Amino acid sequence: MHGRLKVKTSEEQAEAKRLEREQKLKLYQSATQAVFQKRQAGELDESVLELTSQILGANPDFATLWNCRREVLQRLEAQKSPEELATLVKAELGFLESCLRVNPKSYGTWHHRCWLLSRLPEPNWARELELCARFLEVDERNFHCWDYRRFVAAQAAVSPAEELAFADSLIVRNFSNYSSWHYRSCLLPQLHPQPDSGPRGRLPEDVLLKELELVQNAFFTDPNDQSAWFYHRWLLGRADPQDALRCLHVSRDEACLTVSFSRPLLVDPGTETLLLIVDESPLAVEWRTPDGRNRPSPVWLCDLPAASLNDQLPQHTFRVVWTAGDVQKECVLLKGHHEGWSRDSATDEQLFRCELSVEKSTVLQSELKSCKELQELEPENKWCLLTIILLMRALDPLLYEKETLQYFQTLKAVDPMRAAYLDDLRSKFLLENSVLKMEYAEVRVLHLSHKDLTVLCHLEQLLLVTHLDLSHNRLRALPPALAALRCLEVLQASDNAIESLGGVTNLPRLQELSLCNNRLQQPAALQPVASCPKLVLLNLQGNPLCQTAGTSEHLAELLPSVSSILT
C-alpha cells in the first residue's frame, strides 16, 4: 500500500465540506457583525469598504451592505482629494464588475453602479455600453443588464436608431429574447412618432408591415417561444381609448345621479375632478362609488337635493364635467318622469376592441390567415391558438363568435393548466358580445343564462339594465361591481355555485332575487341583501343554508322588509 494516494470516502468528503462551510460561515458572520458595529459607531472609513468587499464578493445580493458602501463613499467624497477620489471610484467600478461576474443578475450591484456613475462629473458612458455588450454576449436575456443599458443610453444620449440596431443584432442571433423585443417596442415609437397615438405608441402602416414580417419569422421559427407572440400582440395593440362619459342617469325617486366613465378614476373629496351643473348652476355634491369603497371605479354617484328635482318646473338639466378628461355629458329630467338618462350609442370598436387594434381589416385578415396556417402545422401551439382568438375578436367579435368558442375548447385541451384563466377570458368575451347585442337592440333586459360563465365583467356597461338573468352558469360570487346596476329590478342567479353576495349591495330598485341551487352556507352570507330597500321576493331553495334548523326564523330577523323568502 506504500506510495499510493489515499482516496477519501464519501463520508470523509462530506465532513470536510461541512467543516469548510462552517469556517466560511464564521468568517462571513464575523465580518458582517464588524460592519454593523462600525456603522453603529459612525466609523464609516475605508476599513468598512474592505470588510464589505469580503462579503459582497461572495454574495453580491446583501442590499444593506451596498447601502453601507454608499454611506462610506459619500463621506470620503468630502475628505479625499480629486486624484484620490478618482482612484477610489476606479477601484469601486472594478469591484462592481467582479461582483457581476459572480452574479450577473444582482439587483444590488447594478443599482449601485447606477448610483456611482450618476455622481461622477464626467462618467465614461462608452465604457459602460461596452460592459453591457459583454454581459449580453454571455446572456442576451439578462433583463438587469438591459435595464442598465437603457439607463446608460439615456445618459449618453445614444440615438434610438443606434439602440434599435443593437437590439436587432441580438434578436437575429436568438429570437427568444423578451427583453430585446420589449426594447424594440420602446424605440420604434420614438423613431416613428405618430400624432394622437397615446402612450402605447402606434406605428405607421409601412413600419408595421415590416415588423409583422419580422415577428412572423420568429414565431414560425420557434412557435413555442412566447416572447415573439407578446411582441406580435403589442404590434397589433390599439392606442388607449379616449376619455369619455359613457352614461349619465338621474333618478327622481332615489334623488341620485349616476355617471359611468370609459376608465376607472378616483374622485377625491375637495378636488374638482367632477363638476355637477344643474340648470346652469354649479352644485356642490359628495361623490361616492356604488359599493361604498371609494376606490378607483368607472362608476360614481351622488345624492341630489330636493330643490334640483322640483316637479313644478317643466324640466331639469344635469351636466357633469370631467375636468381631467376635458369631457362632459348632459341629460334632461322631464316633469312627471321618474328618471332620465343620456348614453352614447357605442360600437364594438369603442367598447371592447382593446386587446388588438382597429387596424385596416386587410392587415388583420392577413395575420389571421398566417396564424391559421401555422396552427395547421402546430395544432397544439397555445400561443398561436390564443392569437387567432384575439385576431377574430379584433376583426368582428359577433361574426366570429361561434368559431371563437370552438378555438377556446381546443385551447383548453392543449393548455389544461390555464383552464380557469381561459374560462374567465371566454366569459369576458361572451359578456362583451351580449352587451353589444343589447346595445344594438336598445333594450334594458339582458339574458346571460346557460353560457357557462365563470366571471362577470364590464358591469359598468349595464347601468340602465332592469332585468338580468345569470342563471345556469358557473359563477362563484356576485362581485362588488354589481352594485353599479342602480336600475336593476329583477336578478335571476339560480343554478350557479355562488358563495358570496358582495355585489347585492344598495341596489335601490331590486325587487326580486332568485338564488336557487347555489352554495350559500350561512344566513350571514345574505347580509348585503338587507341593504336593498325594495326587495320583496327572495328565493333560496336548494342552498345548504336551507337545511339548517331555524334558518327561516333567522332570515326573517335578518331581512324583515322582505315579504316573501322561499327556503
From TrEMBL:
<dbReference type="InterPro" id="IPR002088">
    <property type="entry name" value="Prenyl_trans_a"/>
</dbReference>
<dbReference type="InterPro" id="IPR009087">
    <property type="entry name" value="RabGGT_asu_insert-domain"/>
</dbReference>
<dbReference type="GO" id="GO:0008270">
    <property type="term" value="F:zinc ion binding"/>
</dbReference>
<comment type="similarity">
    <text>Belongs to the protein prenyltransferase subunit alpha family.</text>
</comment>
<dbReference type="InterPro" id="IPR036254">
    <property type="entry name" value="RabGGT_asu_insert-dom_sf"/>
</dbReference>
<dbReference type="GO" id="GO:0097354">
    <property type="term" value="P:prenylation"/>
</dbReference>
<dbReference type="Pfam" id="PF07711">
    <property type="entry name" value="RabGGT_insert"/>
</dbReference>
<dbReference type="InterPro" id="IPR001611">
    <property type="entry name" value="Leu-rich_rpt"/>
</dbReference>
<keyword id="KW-0433">Leucine-rich repeat</keyword>
<dbReference type="GO" id="GO:0005968">
    <property type="term" value="C:Rab-protein geranylgeranyltransferase complex"/>
</dbReference>
<feature type="domain" description="Rab geranylgeranyltransferase alpha subunit insert-domain">
    <location>
        <begin position="245"/>
        <end position="346"/>
    </location>
</feature>
<dbReference type="Pfam" id="PF00560">
    <property type="entry name" value="LRR_1"/>
</dbReference>
<dbReference type="InterPro" id="IPR032675">
    <property type="entry name" value="LRR_dom_sf"/>
</dbReference>
<comment type="function">
    <text>Catalyzes the transfer of a geranylgeranyl moiety from geranylgeranyl diphosphate to both cysteines of Rab proteins with the C-terminal sequence -XXCC, -XCXC and -CCXX, such as RAB1A, RAB3A, RAB5A and RAB7A.</text>
</comment>
<dbReference type="Pfam" id="PF01239">
    <property type="entry name" value="PPTA"/>
</dbReference>
<comment type="function">
    <text>Catalyzes the transfer of a geranyl-geranyl moiety from geranyl-geranyl pyrophosphate to cysteines occuring in specific C-terminal amino acid sequences.</text>
</comment>
<keyword id="KW-0677">Repeat</keyword>
<keyword id="KW-0808">Transferase</keyword>
<keyword id="KW-0637">Prenyltransferase</keyword>
<dbReference type="GO" id="GO:0004663">
    <property type="term" value="F:Rab geranylgeranyltransferase activity"/>
</dbReference>
<keyword id="KW-0597">Phosphoprotein</keyword>
<protein>
    <recommendedName>
        <fullName>Geranylgeranyl transferase type-2 subunit alpha</fullName>
        <ecNumber>2.5.1.60</ecNumber>
    </recommendedName>
</protein>
<dbReference type="InterPro" id="IPR003591">
    <property type="entry name" value="Leu-rich_rpt_typical-subtyp"/>
</dbReference>
